[in-house]
Amino acid sequence: MRRKLVIGNWKMNGNRAGNTALLSGIVAGLNDFGADCAVCVPAPYLAQCQAALEGTAVAWGAQDVSTHASGAYTGEVSADMLLDFGATYVLCGHSERRAYHGESSELVAQKAVAALEAGLTPVVCVGETLEQREAGQTEQVICAQLQAVLDAVKPEQVAKLVLAYEPVWAIGTGKTATPQIAQDAHRFLRDCVANKHAEAAATVQILYGGSMKPENATELMAQPDIDGGLIGGAALKATDFLGIIQSV
To answer: pLDDT value at position 31?
Structure first.
């Protein structure tokens, strides 16, 4: 039985005062709802998360990681640096990184490998655009994005991945991915993992990252292959984030 996992992606949001209120609200309202939870925050706030969340049930992580361990790479943050601040998770290949920073699937795979080798859990994000979906390319696109990572990691590391399906076409567009559409994509991704490592496919967590909210979380979480959520806007309000966790 895969345990549910809910990760809040703050994106480029937050300030020290607001973060304190948000984190304390999450910790105060968190009960054993049957789900694990974490927040992935901008790198400057990792120390604040460590101070506020150490010893609680809330884990924390980063939104990106360098492929390099150290060296002359101005602006980069290594996996070991993230570990220095108690990080558990790191996002790899979020749709915004792919779109705005031109990250290729091969680069995303290298980041996932760097995270795994350091002992972090990479949350590998895959998803198709509206144009790709309308062209009937959904499975082709998300399988290629995932396959680059599966080809790069060791077989025994596959089970240590967390995957997140982001239907880019359903985020902020007014279009909706129904629970069945989401389930079909998650099932397909699990089948792709099974082609590499059948045993890992049964245990790897696959999160839904398509504008999950308290209002739709229960139905989405009920799908057999949806193991939680990668939450954007709703993660910036403690009541909304807790509402999603509680839907489990």
So the answer is: 86
Mean pLDDT, each 10-residue run in order, the chain (248 residues):
95 98 97 90 98 97 98 98 98 97 98 98 97 96 98 96 96 81 98 95 96 94 97 96 94
Active site residue 186: no
pTM, full prediction: 0.97
Measure the CA–CA gap between 220 and 234, rounded to whole angstroms.
Answer: 15
- Report yes or no: 49 and 8 within 8 Å, Cβ to Cβ: no
Cα(75)–Cα(18) distance, rounded to whole angstroms?
Answer: 25
User: Which entry of 103, 128, 166, 197 is annotated as an active-site residue?
Assistant: 166
Please name the amino acid found at residue 179. Answer: P
Determine which one of 94, 96, 103, 186 is catalytic: 94
pLDDT at 171: 82
Residue 86: burial class (beta carbons within 10 Å; 0-12, 13-18, 19+): middle
Contact 57, 37 (CB under 8 A): yes
DSSP 3-state helix, strand, coil percentages of the chain (rounded to 5)?
50, 15, 35
Long-range contacts of 212-218 (CB under 8 A, 24+ apart): 212/244, 213/240, 213/244, 214/240, 214/243, 214/244, 214/247, 216/179, 217/243, 217/244, 217/247, 218/247
pLDDT for 118 equals 98
* φ, ψ dihedrals at 244, nearest 5°: -70, -45
